[in-house]
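Quick check before the chapter quiz. The format below is the same one you will see on the exam, so make sure you can read both the input and the output lines.
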Amino acid sequence: MTTFDEREQAFEQKFVIDQELLFKSTARCNRLLGMWAAEQLGLSGDAASSYAKDIVAADVAAPGTGEVLQKLSRDLTDKGISEEVIRQKMGEFLLIAIQQVKAGL
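Here is the expected output.
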């Protein structure tokens, strides 16, 4: 195997690892976001867990923040929570999720 082939293989492996980290972090972020939103909606226990799973599923069905943001905006508007606040929480929870995934939690 040439040096070029080894470097190419290393870059491919890094890409796979980075994509896995991104997927896990995004799913965890959405779960945390879903649990926060459930609390805002007055849900707890199994209802809160179910709601959080729905948020994760919304992202899997349509990857990206668009579908999740729209669902949360629809659900939280009556509680007086703006899209700006939801976006802020998304950022906060993404940082937490990345740290947790990197720590192996």
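If your answer matched, good. The mean pLDDT is 89.
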